[in-house]
Every structure is written in structure tokens, then in C-alpha cells.
Amino acid sequence: MRNLSSPMVQAIQSDYIRPAFLAMLNFTTGIQYVWTGPGPLVWNGNTYTGVGSLGQVGTISEATEVRADGTTVTLSGIDPALMGDCLNDVRVGAPAVIYFALVDQSGALIGTPYPLFSGTVDKPVVSVGPDSISISLALESRLTNLQRATQRRYTAADQHIKYPDDTGFNWVEILNDIALRWGS
Predict the structure, then answer these.
(1) What gap in Å lies between CA 19 and CA 37, rounded to an integer?
(2) Which end of the chain, N or C, is less packed with Cβ atoms under 10 Å?
């Protein structure tokens, strides 16, 4: 059963389980720790704020082939007066981690939460209702970067941006104008 802690495996095999999700999200004002239960929850030296039924985690899929699957985290019930502050606080490209956890009947964690998803924050989507607002953060897998073209070049000028004293690429541009004969 993956790398689940022994207490989690025992709890899963019992008749009664109580699943929960913990999320670590980076914003411009700092890191926010939230979980899908009521009240505060302390784990790993951090206090997770309970959002209860106001928080949702989208589908997290897994495949045997390499592909970039993302998910969403949604918070509903936001006061419309706070919408501007909420959207200004979103930091696109910031790290985000979602954990799967089990809690007992008193609300204490059972074992060690399992990391389900690790990626970065993408653009937010806002849904406006008559009394409240929902904000969904799209989270994308780091594998998404494999689909993007690199902005780096194999030139001396590009190499000097990161390594100013490196001369390894000084001759690369000259190779374009040289006619080399092989085997004569």
C-alpha cells in the first residue's frame, strides 16, 4: 500500500475511516495551511486552518505513462468585499502540496499524511453568486514544464547569463560557418 504509515494502513483496514485533505499553498502574503475539517489541526509544526465543507479538492489522477495531470483547490463562501484582496494574493507559479490524511473521531491525525499532489499554482477562476464568491486555484503538475519550449540557447551569450566566466560555448557560433570534411 504505497508508502503509507503503519497506523494509516491499520485505520484503512478498520471498519471506520475518516479521510481528510491537507493543503499547503503559497500566496504573496505567505504560506497558508488549510484542511478539509473543522477547526485547527497541527501537523509537522504547522497549524492548518479548517475550512470544512467550504473547501474542495478536485480530482487527482495517476497514470502509468508520463503525463502532466493537474487538479484544483476551491474555497467557497468568500465575502464579495474581499474578492479583490483574494485575487491580488494569488501567486502564479508558487508551490502547492496536497496531502491525504486520516483523522480519528476526536479529530486527531492517524499516522503521517501521504503527499497526493505536488505542483504549482496556475490562474484562479472566480465564480460569483448572489451572496458569496468561490475561487478555484488550478494546480498544475511540474511535468507541465516538459511541454514548454525552453528559452535557453546554446550560445556563449546565453551561457554567460548564468555562468559569466564559462568559455565552453565560445566556439559554438563559429561552427556554423566552418565546412568540415569527414574521412578524407
Answers:
(1) 9
(2) C
